[in-house]
Amino acid sequence: MPSTPKKTAQLIVDSGNEYLGALKGNQKGLLTDVKAHFKPESTVETLEKGHGRIEKRTVSICRDLSNIRQWPGLKTLIRVESQRSEIYNDMIVDTQETRYYITSLLEEVEPLAQRIRGVLGSRKQGPLCSRCHPR
Predict the structure, then answer these.
(1) How far apart are CA 112 and CA 120, in angstroms?
(2) Residue 21: which residues within 8 A CB-CB, separation 6 or more?
(3) Which of 5, 22, 38, 115 has its CA 20 to 30 A from that of 82?
(4) E strands within the chain?
(5) What is the distance between the alpha carbons of residues 59 and 33, in angstroms, rounded to a whole number?
(6) Half-sphere exposure (CA, 13 Å, Cβ side) for 60?
(7) Of the candidates 102, 105, 128, which has an alpha carbon nearest to the alpha carbon of residue 26?
(8) Hey, CA dihedral for 71, 72, 74, 77, is it positive or negative?
(9) Least confident window among 19-23, 66-70, 90-94, 130-134
């Protein structure tokens, strides 16, 4: 999923669209704020099996932006915690990863989790999905 730089977010909002983007190192201040002040308000868990692995994903949202620096159109913070168990050469390898996303959408946690999973799945199968979502 592409990251959403500040100028791009402003252009998307100004055009009447919505954005959903990954927070990465190029927005260090915002990422630091989100990691320090994220308070889960709603959470959904999924468990997926296939291709020799089991993945548990916990998706949480936070709408309290009081300690988060200004970002165009920002309404929801999203945290995705992934725990994977994969089989390599008859050994089980466990990995954990936490990713953060920002969005101008005010959806509940389930549709946001589906949007994130849909974009990540499409990246593996074909061209990158657009980060713009018409209102």
Answers:
(1) 12
(2) 1, 2, 3, 4, 9, 101, 102, 103, 131
(3) 5
(4) 17-22, 42-50, 53-62, 76-88, 91-103, 132-134
(5) 18
(6) 14
(7) 102
(8) negative
(9) 130-134
Q: Which amino acid is at 22?
A: A
Q: Report which of 59, 100, 104 is spatially closest to residue 83, judged by C-alpha positions.
A: 59
Q: Which amino acid is at 35?
A: K
CB 68 within 8 A of CB 33: yes
Q: Residue 29, Cα to own-chain centre: how many angstroms? A: 17
Instruction: Find out whether 120 and 1 touch, Cβ atoms under 8 Å.
Output: yes
**78's tokens:** 């999203």
Question: Are 18 and 133 in contact, with CB atoms under 8 Å apart?
Answer: yes
